[in-house]
Design brief:
- With about 120 residues, the protein is an alpha+beta fold.
- The chain has a domain of about 70 residues: Ubiquitin-like (UB roll).
- It has 4 helices and 5 strands.
- The chain has a 5-stranded mixed beta sheet with strand order 2-1-5-3-4, covered by helices on one side.
- A hairpin with a 2-residue loop joins strand 3 and strand 4.
- The protein is elongated.
Length: about 120
């Protein structure tokens, strides 16, 4: 296999609420995700990235830092969540229930069929 055939094209992406950056690289096909991220320079541009805590993925699929990638893969560095989505949904449902906007039995949206059945 020639040296050129062993090279692959990859992208490293990192997104903030108001800014998204894409780093394009040509690397050896045996490079790990961690090596590619370090080579990309994203860690020097965004020093808040900590690979021991930030999760990474390839095309929205979580991968470990020692994983290898294929040609044209996009490595994504994820920011930590500010709030737990399950907790937010639970609080929103509780507020709707307390405000009378939720079905008292199921906790979901009131069913027009249930109300018509209760009225009869």
């Amino acid at each position: 296999m020639s040296a050129e055939a062993q090279l692959i094209h990859v992208e490293v992406v990192y997104a903030l609420p108001n800014e998204q950056r894409v780093f394009q690289l040509v690397v050896n096909h045996e490079s790990t995700v961690e090596e590619i991220i370090q080579k990309s320079g994203v860690l020097s541009v965004y020093p808040e990235i900590d690979l021991s805590t930030n999760k990474v993925g390839v095309f929205s699929r979580n991968v470990k830092l020692d994983a290898t990638v294929r040609d044209k893969d996009r490595i994504e560095i994820y920011r930590p969540l500010l709030a737990d989505p399950k907790e937010i949904r639970r609080k929103r449902a509780e507020q709707a229930k307390n405000a009378g906007k939720a079905d008292p039995v199921t906790g979901g949206k009131p069913s027009p069929l249930r109300k018509s059945a209760e009225a009869s």
